[in-house]
Design brief:
single chain, alpha/beta, 3-stranded mixed sheet, 8 strands
Length: about 425
């Protein structure tokens, strides 16, 4: 009897090993390893912890399981654990007895795509969002990135409102908190079920997972499982996948495996429409827009301040009142010198170093980028541009521009960064 039991155990381990060899280790650990294996006659029975897990495994891994079972002359059936069975040991994360409750979030009113003011630079990303919201797409995950205030979260909200089926939207911070709590409460399998039981999954601010290895591993496996099941995945972040810090190469590669699209900061047209929609007088919109940074959050704050002042004071807000009211927000008139100093802060170099004779790689690249931005954002001649970056001559500026143009053809992140600065300083 003992020999027979030992032989059966060996056979089960052999079957598990054969399955593990056919799928990636993370998928095996998450879905196959927790199953209870049993062989009776020519039947291989896999006991899942809940109906969702059974359905998911059957839909995603049935081909692999049937293939391995055939090697051993067995048929496969997947059943759900009967928690009242006499010989079934209790499992800490058994979702039949434990459930997961997500962190409560305030209900948000539906957001239409019309609320996102589309510039020419953002036509592509908006079209991709609309396509995904309309149904299953081949480019999942859709990874949307851009600077703060460019409208990433607004697009995520638009997809949330327009997508069909069950849509689950979480912030990066909420995902970290809920996953950590599920580990503490020993309901991690219920958390897995909760995240996977959707048609479209949206995670806003992926960068919040940076440096949290266990959470990142769970998130990566979630994206893999959802994509394998034909579900849509939408992710937003403040940087492109290969520029995210605190993520290993595998995670960066997965995030970039679908469609990566950047969102450009609001340009003059977008700022004008936002201010007009908020009720700002048309005769001061352009003047104010030229002195407001290309940041959607800031523009919305300006519009709210003007509207609130008009409501409380019972008067129209003219340019003089707006200038005084927004003295802490409006930028000084943009000069080439101010542009160069602003770019020094963005690129992490000092103004003195840019104007000096330093030739380090990062410094030269920053200096050349500034020349290209000045050319694209102003009407300055090449000699005038050279004067603002340390007195460089016409030939030096021309060479720098040609070098950057070559780099932009192969480095799309650099190209997007330069275009964003040009839009900001125009």
């Amino acid at each position: 009897m003992q020999i027979a039991a030992t032989t059966q155990m060996t056979n089960l381990e052999t079957i598990k090993g054969a399955i593990a060899a056919k799928i990636d280790s993370a998928s095996f650990t998450s879905w196959i390893a927790p199953l209870q294996f049993d062989v009776a006659g020519n039947e291989l029975t896999l006991v899942a912890q809940n109906q969702f897990s059974a359905d998911y495994i059957n839909s995603v891994y049935s081909n692999v399981l049937n293939s391995v079972a055939n090697q051993f002359g067995l048929n496969v059936q997947i059943v759900v654990r009967n928690t009242t069975a006499r010989n079934v040991a209790p499992v800490a994360n058994d979702n039949a007895t434990q459930t997961f409750t997500p962190t409560p979030v305030a209900d948000v009113a539906p957001v239409a795509f019309d609320s996102f003011i589309t510039s020419d630079e953002n036509l592509f990303v908006v079209s991709a969002c609309k396509k995904l919201a309309a149904g299953s797409v081949p480019f999942s995950p859709l990874f949307i990135y851009g600077a703060s205030g460019c409208g990433k979260s607004l697009l995520a909200d638009c997809i949330h409102s327009a997508a069909q089926g069950r849509v689950l939207k979480m912030s990066g911070a909420q995902f970290v908190a809920d996953f950590t709590r599920s580990l503490h409460d020993r309901t991690v399998f219920a958390f897995k079920d909760f995240c996977r039981n959707c048609d479209t999954f949206i995670l806003d601010d992926v960068q919040c997972l940076s440096g949290k290895k266990a959470t990142t591993d769970e998130f990566v496996q979630l994206v893999v499982d959802l994509r394998n099941a034909g579900k849509n995945v939408v992710l937003t972040a403040n940087a492109a996948p290969n520029n995210l810090t605190g993520f290993d190469r595998r995670a960066q590669s997965l995030l970039a495996s679908g469609l990566v699209a950047d969102v450009a900061a609001p340009n003059a047209f977008v700022k004008s429409v936002m201010l007009k929609r908020a009720g700002v007088a048309a005769d001061i919109v352009d003047t104010l827009g030229a002195r407001i940074a290309n940041d959607g959050h800031l523009i919305a704050g300006v519009a709210t301040k003007i509207k609130t002042y008009a409501d409380l004071m019972g008067t129209n807000v003219d340019l003089a009142i707006a200038t005084r009211l927004l003295s802490d927000t409006l930028q000084a008139t943009k000069t080439p010198m101010a542009m160069v100093k602003g770019m020094c802060e963005k690129l992490g170099v000092s103004y003195d170093a840019v104007c000096g004779a330093g030739r380090s790689r990062n410094l030269v690249l920053a200096r050349q980028m500034m020349m290209v931005v000045l050319k694209g954002a102003t009407g300055l001649s090449l000699s005038e541009i050279g004067n603002f970056v340390g007195g460089r001559d016409h030939a030096t500026v021309l060479y720098a521009i040609k070098q950057i143009e070559k780099l932009q053809q192969s480095d799309l992140v650099l190209a997007a960064q330069i275009q964003q600065m040009i839009n900001e300083y125009k």
